[in-house]
Design brief:
Layout lengths: L4 H5 L5 E7 L6 E4 L2 E4 L1 E10 L3 E2 L12 H15 L6 E10 L5 E2 L2 E10 L4 H19 L3 E5 L3 E2 L2 E3 L1 H14 L3 E4 L9 H7 L2 E7 L17 H16 L3
Parallel strand pairs: 1-13, 2-12
Antiparallel strand pairs: 2-13, 3-11, 4-8, 4-9, 4-10, 5-7, 6-8
Helix pairs in contact: 2-3
């Protein structure tokens, strides 16, 4: 999208975005200059062995060993990343097997990688690749990795962000809370990499967290967004 002729024809000098935050009350915004969201990567790992009858394990190659791989992956952050850095590897889905008396011939792990520093992402991936290759050797199976979609960190422009925070606070348009960096990911980071701007959390006040099936933002948060953005844009001549 950034490279498309359509975007280049309307490419803005500044760019801004918001994201609802259920942990903040309506009437509050959460923001900070500098790094706000992490670098993220999807993670898909397929292990391919050989299925068979549960009574003849020596004639098969059991891919329920994927559970071993999940445990091994947790060592990457614990033992390969600087403790003062921040990284997360989460396996959110593991699928293997079809029935209790059939040895599984395949397994698929699906997860995500998060790093606060851009330079840490390739470091984590190299270690994952080493571990997965080792599991393939150990259990004599094929192992494939796909990193899917990747998002660049959200890094708020320091001067613009501070200016916005001061503007909103001085006029009492909303409660401005300076929040810590989060390990969430957002493709808006690619825009901020090329165009100055910022992203902020918009308080949506719901007991259910992000991505929870019951999350229902309080729609009064839309009023807060309009109340802080319209005068800010208007005063600066943004259209």
């Amino acid at each position: 999208m950034l490279a498309s002729p359509e975007f280049q024809a309307v490419r803005p000098e500044k760019i801004f975005a918001l994201h609802v935050q259920p942990d903040l009350p309506v009437g509050e915004i959460g923001i900070r200059p500098g790094i706000l969201f992490a670098n993220t990567s999807e993670l898909f790992i397929d292990l391919i062995g050989r299925g068979g009858h549960a009574a003849y394990p020596h004639q098969a190659n059991d891919m329920v060993v994927a559970a071993h791989l999940v445990t091994a992956l947790q060592s990457v952050v614990a033992r390969n990343i600087d403790p003062l850095d921040a990284a997360v590897i989460t396996i959110g889905r593991l699928e293997s097997g079809t029935k209790q008396n059939i040895i599984a011939g395949r397994a698929r792990l699906e997860g995500t990688i998060r790093t606060l520093a851009a330079a840490t992402m390739p470091q984590v991936k190299r270690r994952i690749e080493s571990i997965v290759a080792g599991v393939g050797e150990m259990f004599d199976c094929a192992a494939e990795i796909d990193y899917g979609a990747n998002y660049y960190q959200v890094f708020n422009h320091e001067e613009l962000t501070k200016s916005f925070m001061d503007f909103v606070s001085a006029r009492g348009l909303a409660v401005v809370r300076e929040v810590p960096a989060a390990m969430t990911g957002e493709d808006f980071g690619y825009f901020l990499k090329e165009i100055p701007g910022f992203l902020f959390w918009l308080g949506a006040e719901t007991p259910y967290g992000l991505h929870h099936e019951n999350m229902l933002p309080d729609e009064r948060c839309i009023d807060t967004a309009l109340r802080v953005l319209i005068p800010y844009f208007s005063e600066r001549g943004y259209r």
